[in-house]
Amino acid sequence: MGRRNTRNLNMPPCMHPRTQRSGKVYYYMYTKDKPRKEIPLGPDFILALKKYAELNIVVEVIANATFSDVEKRYLVEAVPKLAASSARMYRSDIKHLLAAFSEAPLAQIKPMHIRQFLDDRADKPTTANRCKRVFSTMWNHARGWGYTDLPNPCEGIQGHSLPKRTVYITDAVFEAVWGHAGAPLRDAMDLAYLTGQRPADALKMTESDIIGGYLVVTQEKTKQPLRIKVVGELAALIERIKARKATRSIVTAALLVNAHGKRLTGPALRSQFDAAKKLAAEKNPELLPEIKKFWFYDLRAKAADDTSDQHGDQAASDLLGHDSVRTTQRHYLRRGKIVEPTR
């Protein structure tokens, strides 16, 4: 029979206090796995007990952890830290992963199962590849949490080969759709193109973001900060937007507003864009194939290509907020370099 504990009787097993040099008491919990780890619970006793209860559940499931166990914790701890658009995509992809792995013990998931997952979804290669990346990220979190110490089963498994998107939106196609758009969509198209930002970032821009002659942007996806000079066509566009907003009784700081003066939403933008494309295709049958291929997101690539032609690849990369010009070249520059003939 082991020696009975006579200290910290007000605490559950494996929990103990420690007095810091400052005199403040912090609480910790030892895990039962080997090598034993010490997890800080904080200085507040009640909150420490709460965290202990949450973590103790985790410790108990580690021995036979399943993919579902990882999914539950990942949705609570990791997904909320992502950008809103990324979080929505991750939740959607995780549903596909749950359908395949759900109660599968982590110890039994092998590289061959990842390969099979990809092969079973060969008809949706983009989604399959994205799900594989999410699975890999979740597995790495599981290793950090102590759910498994096995190598990532995605390692060495190649995803589907995907062709690079090569669609370049010509001025003719842009003007055809713009010409059949209402004022809110015209403003959105112009703002997205002139700033080179993602649709979600364009929708978030406000008059308050214009500071000292710059449009200050913090990209939702990467948190990359940018200061875009408010000059030329962008300055004229912002004045046009302000003039239109001034005719509405509703006051909002957003740059992109609907016909009533309220902030323009993502669903409304998509609906208006699809309607304008349909009208443009009907009125410009010679441009039908190109108009059908036009995605609103392509305006970011058009901004990159047009900026590159005028000022070089680095300027395009800076506008898009990329840390590396290679990212811009690989994913956004679609027209090819301008070169001189031999003679």
TrEMBL record:
Q: Give GO terms for biological process.
A: DNA integration; DNA recombination
Which residues are in the Core-binding (CB) domain?
Answer: 65-143
Keyword list (alphabetical) reads:
DNA integration, DNA recombination, DNA-binding
Could you give a GO molecular-function term held by this entry?
DNA binding
Name the residues that span the membrane.
Answer: none
Domain Tyr recombinase span(s) in chain numbering: 164-343
Gene3D superfamilies linked to this entry: 1.10.150.130, Intergrase catalytic core
Question: InterPro entries recorded for this chain?
Answer: CB (IPR044068), DNA_brk_join_enz (IPR011010), Integrase-like_cat_sf (IPR013762), Integrase_catalytic (IPR002104), Integrase_recombinase_N (IPR010998), Integrase_SAM-like_N (IPR004107)
Name used for this protein in its record = Integrase
**What's the source species for this entry?**
Janthinobacterium agaricidamnosum
